[in-house]
Structure formats: C-alpha cells, structure tokens
What we know:
The chain is of the alpha+beta class.
Amino acid sequence: MRYWLFKSEPDCFSLSDLRKKKRAPWDGVRNFQARNYLRDDVHVGDIVVFYHSSCAVPGAVGLATVTKAAYPDATAWDPHSEHPDPKSTRANPRWFVVDVAYKQDFKVPVPLTILHTLPEFAGSPLIQRGNRLSIIPLTASQFRAVVREGSRAQ
DNA sequence: GCCAACGTTGGC
DNA sequence: GCCAACGTTGGC
C-alpha cells in the first residue's frame, strides 16, 4: 500500500466535488511521468492526499482512496472533452485514469506554505520551484506529517 | 539527437 | 494577470 498526492484545480474538480460524487475517475492527466505512476504504481487501497492547486490557498485539503486500478482515459479520444488527445485511441490508449473515493476532509487545510516548513518534505518534488508533476508519491512519514498538520485544532 | 518555439502549469 | 519554469513538439 502506497501513499500519493494528487493535484487538482478546485475550480475544475475539488475535494467537495468528490465528496458529493463519493467516487470518480481521476481523469485528464496529460503528463507522461504522472501517467506512468497512475498506470504502473497506483493500486487499489492506496491512499491519496487531495491537493488543491492554482487557487487562493494552494495546499492539501483531505484524503481519498483508490478504488480501481488504471484503465484507459476515455476523455482523451473524446473531441468534446476538456483535454482531447488525437494521439490516444481505443486501440492504443496513451492516457489512463484510476478511480478514487472520498475519504475525509482535513480538520484544517495544510497550505503549501506549511508543507514547505516540514522537514519530511525536504527533497519532495512538491516543494520544488516550478514543479509541475500532478501525481506525486509520498513516503509514510510525509503522509503522517500531512495528516498531523491537518488534524490540528483551529 | 539537438534545440528553439510553443503551450501549459502553478505560485504569487 | 503576471511570469518563471517546465514538458512536448517538430524542424533540422
């Protein structure tokens, strides 16, 4: 069982959207390194830290679990989707999704500014300048640190 | 295989 | 909205 951090723009798909839907495919990933993680290393039962990017306070906001391993991303060959890719076909899919289920909101969000201060995250791509990776593996200690910060009294 | 141009990401 | 940094594309 592994831990992951998945980034999403809340204007596009937020943790509260997932809470309402209970379960959803994590689609639209169009980066090869993130795709490789999704396709090869994300397994049923893995735990996902849900991260909001490109918003007022970027940071980790809660947890989800992986409920289905990788299968082709149908939005890639749908010309009307948000992220069509003519190079991906049913016969030879280029992009993949996993299904995730809502688990919980943190008691308090953990802003990126706090993540920067946690010694556990030294060296994580998450806090690297210019980092664009949207699927990031977390160590157990990184996961524990985020949960600890998200469990603080307000 | 190189690398410039381009489009996108994401924090601020 | 700005802009630095990045990944991908495509010409050569």
